[in-house]
Amino acid sequence: MTAANKINIKKGDTVKVIAGKDKGAEGKVIAVLREESRVIVEGVNRIKKHEKVVNTGSGNTGGIVTTEAPIHVSNVMLVEGDGVTRVGFRRDEVTKRRADGSTYTAQRSVRVSRKSGKEI
Questions:
Q1: Are 30 and 46 in contact (CB under 8 A)?
Q2: Would you give the end-to-end CA distance of the chain in angstroms?
Q3: pTM of the predicted structure, to 2 decimals
């Protein structure tokens, strides 16, 4: 994995747009396109798309459809509380249990807020 494909935003996160025509808008991440370093955010970067009728039996009636287009991941920030924050990672010690009942310690990587230090 290259540094360009490292995305700290996940599907389901609430993000705020910090640049572009929809600056200031908040929404939930619908999808993450890791290869293109882009995310699709609910209600942000809406476009009109012309769709052709493919098969009338499947319910695709065609016409002009409004949908969300991808936005670059550098133009969004994760929302925490009433503001935005950067994302960091922390390794926590956890106790795990094997199938035979014995326990062992391992490390788990968790996402944390750079602003407050709390787990996301």
A1: no
A2: 23
A3: 0.80
Would you put residue 81 in left (φ > 0), alpha (ψ -120 to 50) or beta? left
Q: Is 96's pLDDT higher than 90? A: yes
Distance between CA 38 and CA 72 in Å, rounded?
A: 4
Q: Whole-angstrom Cα distance, residue 42 to residue 31?
A: 9
pLDDT confidence band for 21 (50 / 70 / 90): very high
Q: Are 45 and 22 in contact (CB under 8 A)?
A: yes
CA gap 88, 108 in Å, rounded: 14
**Rounded Cα distance, 24 and 39, in Å:** 16
In Å, how far are 16, 43, 45, 86, 96 from 68, measured between CA atoms? 15, 7, 6, 24, 42
Token pair for 80: 């925490």
What residues are paired with 41 via a beta bridge? 29
Structure token pair of residue 112: 């944390």
Residue 22: closest CA among 66, 62, 60, 76: 76
